[in-house]
Structure formats: structure tokens, C-alpha cells
Specification:
disordered N terminus, three-stranded antiparallel sheet, mainly alpha, 3% strand, 308 residues, disordered C terminus
């Protein structure tokens, strides 16, 4: 939904917001419980620090630390009876907030793949937050991550605009994927034993089930999982990370075709995973080369680019 500083960017903004309908957990009760726990830990920590200062140790300000809820210029410590030092505090990692941000990010990525977040549209973090049932903060943080990935761009005082990408950019991403992955697949075909390839059968079957569901977001996740598992056989974590980033970007629809891929296309793509595994397990290099080329380039199979 387009959204201005006053809350709406124009007609149709509310409709676009409603399209993003993936619920985000946890419940308000969970959030309140975690907040109370954090406040209790903070009070316990303050009391423990007070006991230590009472024993004659310098306070946080004297050590140059920033302290919360304590005087900025306290008087001299008053000697008192010795007290045991505070126990090691438990880490106060914002698990709940991180979980919410991650769920919002996953939901927004899914909406990009399905076309619910439409190229060229501006979306407001507060309005999306209302839709998700969370504050604007985790939505804004998730959108900032998407901006780093090139999916959206910041529009000052309005929100985030989904980047409009043409067919040329998608073709370039497909070429980059082929340049990265095809040589690795062909090398792995020569070095990985059949039993290791057989272990990937459940992931290939998962892509087939996801394709049958007709949900582009579900298939996109299963597709990335399968390719990630194949590339992981090379033992190069940077390769897996970079290829995964390019793969994700290649799954976003172009501005000219905001509608996601249809079920028939998804099923055909998933079938190629199964056929590839069959050829790899059988140790058929010619079939592997042909199927890899087809999987990454479709009918084009530019042998000059792929070196096939």
C-alpha cells in the first residue's frame, strides 16, 4: 500500500496492504511476559550492583560505563558489611524481537515472490505493522534488510518502494546463476558418489510437493533449499551464500510480469530436480550436462556462456 507521512499515499493503498496477510507470532501475551521478565532481570541486576558498591567497589560511572537507572554522579560509596558479588547475569538477548523481525522478513519475502508486494508501489511500515499485528519497528528493520538485498528502496517520509526490475535484469541474474552454479554441478557430478546424491532425494521430492501446491512462495523456499544442499557438497560456504543471494533475487517477478509463475511452470521446474538426481545417481555425465543446461537456461542453453 502506498503510504504518505499522514498515513496513505493514494487510492488503493489499503487494498495493497491487505494483500499481505501472513500472520506473525508471538501473541501480545508472549510479548508482555518477555517484557516483564526483562524488567525483573534489570531490577535484580541493579540491586546486585548496589550491594557491590556498598562493599566498597567503584560504581559503573567511575569505571566509565554507561549505567541505566542509576545517578550520573553518585556520592562516595559508604562502607558497609561485606556482601557476596553478584552472580553472572544471564544474557539479555532480544530473542523475541529478533524472532518477530525474522518472521516479518520471511513474510515480506514471500509477498515479493507472489507479487503481493507490487513493483513500483510504496509501502508504509506502520500500516504493514498493523496488518501483521506488530509495531512498525520490526517491519522497518525487515524492509531495511530488503533494501540491502536490492528488493526495495527507501522513500523518505513515506516508506519503501518495491524496486521495478525489467526482463533484462532477470536475464542477467539468470546468467550470473549459471556462471556460478553450472561449473560446480558438473564438477560435483564427477566427484560425489551416488549414495550422497541419493541423500538429496527428500529435498527434490519436497520441491515437487511445493510445486503441486501452486504456491510460488512455498516453491521458492523449497527450490532454494535443494540448490543450497547441492552446492554445500562443494564445501565452500561463501559459494553457498553468494549463490543463495543471487537465487533469491532471481525469484522476484519483473515489473512487466508482476504475476508469479503458474503451477505448471513450477511443476516442470521441480521435475528437472528429480531428473537431475536420477542422472547423477546413475553416473550419466552426458545426461547431467544436458539437464543442468536446461535447468539453468531453459530453451536458450547458451553454450558460449556456460561452457557446456
Amino acid at each position: 500500500m502506498k503510504h504518505s507521512a499522514q498515513g496513505a499515499a493514494g487510492p488503493g493503498a489499503g487494498t495493497a496492504a491487505a494483500a499481505v496477510r501472513i500472520p506473525v507470532q508471538p501473541s501480545a501475551a508472549d510479548v508482555a511476559r518477555d517484557r516483564d521478565r526483562d524488567e525483573s532481570q534489570s531490577r535484580d541486576g541493579s540491586r546486585a550492583r548496589a550491594r557491590v558498591r556498598g562493599a566498597g567497589e567503584p560504581d559503573g560511572a567511575a569505571r566509565g560505563e554507561h549505567t541505566h537507572g542509576e545517578p550520573s554522579a553518585p556520592g562516595p560509596a559508604v562502607p558497609g558489611p561485606s556482601a557476596p558479588g553478584p552472580s553472572t547475569p544471564r544474557p539479555r538477548t532480544p530473542v523475541q524481537r529478533s524472532s518477530v523481525r525474522g518472521q516479518v522478513l520471511d513474510a515480506l519475502r514471500a509477498a515479493l515472490v507472489t507479487g503481493e508486494l507490487r513493483p513500483g508501489e510504496v509501502y508504509s511500515a506502520p500500516v504493514l505493522g498493523e496488518r501483521f499485528g506488530v509495531s512498525a519497528t520490526p517491519v522497518r528493520e525487515a524492509m531495511q534488510q530488503l533494501a540491502l538485498e536490492g528488493a526495495v528502496e527507501v522513500v523518505p517520509n513515506r516508506g519503501f518502494r518495491v524496486v521495478e526490475r525489467g526482463d533484462r535484469e532477470l536475464a542477467e541474474l539468470a546468467e550470473v546463476r549459471a556462471l556460478i552454479e553450472v561449473p560446480v554441478w558438473l564438477r560435483l557430478a564427477r566427484t560425489v558418489p551416488a549414495e550422497r546424491w541419493a541423500e538429496l532425494r527428500p529435498l527434490a521430492e519436497a520441491t515437487a510437493r511445493a510445486a503441486s501446491s501452486g504456491c510460488p512462495a512455498t516453491y521458492a523456499e523449497a527450490d532454494r533449499a535443494f540448490h543450497r544442499a547441492v552446492l554445500a557438497l562443494a564445501g565452500n560456504e561463501e559459494l553457498v551464500r553468494i549463490a543463495g543471494d543471487v537465487h533469491r533475487r532471481a525469484q522476484w517477478p519483473s515489473a512487466g510480469s508482476p504475476t508469479a509463475r503458474g503451477r505448471a511452470d513450477l511443476v516442470a521446474d521441480a521435475h528437472e530436480h528429480t531428473a537431475l538426481l536420477d542422472a547423477l545417481i546413475a553416473g550419466d555425465p552426458d545426461a547431467v550436462r544436458a539437464l543442468v543446461g536446461q535447468h539453468f537456461t531453459g530453451a536458450r542453453q547458451d553454450s558460449g556462456v556456460l561452457g557446456l
